[in-house]
Amino acid sequence: MSPTIVAIHVAKGSRLPMQAKDRVEAEAGKGIVGDRYHGTKHRHVTVQSRESLDEAAAVFGAEVRSELTRRNLTISHGAVPRDPGARLRIGDVVLEAVRVAAPCKLLDDTIGRGAQEALRRRAGTVFRVLEGGTIGIGDVVVPVGDPPAG
Known about the structure:
Blueprint: E1 5-10, E2 19-20, E3 23-27, E4 31-32, E5 45-49, H1 50-60, E6 73-75, E7 87-90, E8 93-100, H2 106-110, H3 115-119, E9 125-131, E10 133-136, E11 141-144
Parallel strand pairs: 5-6
Antiparallel strand pairs: 1-2, 1-6, 3-4, 3-10, 5-9, 7-8, 7-11, 8-9
């Protein structure tokens, strides 16, 4: 069964609390409308897996809530592509992986000491928006094409 979107979060500015949304508009070449990274060059959307967060919680010893990681989209299960150039389709939206989203030290302050280390290799991927549209809770997430060589 394909993964689905289980959580969507945006923040209007850095260090401002993440706000849960049922639907967001992803604009090609710009990102999620209303998010702090909208209009940046490559960091349009961040995607993480609930399964990876649960693994991090087992290491951390406490729940790791989706909004506290400061990622935009959380998928239900499976691995989020990490290789640059890998693509995902969510409805009409096509995302292209740019780089791994490394967990920052701020996570130790917001989630608790040790969260940054628990999320290492589990913190998701940064994507750019190639084709825009609406993303909503429950939307199916499908890999597009063959994974990049390398």
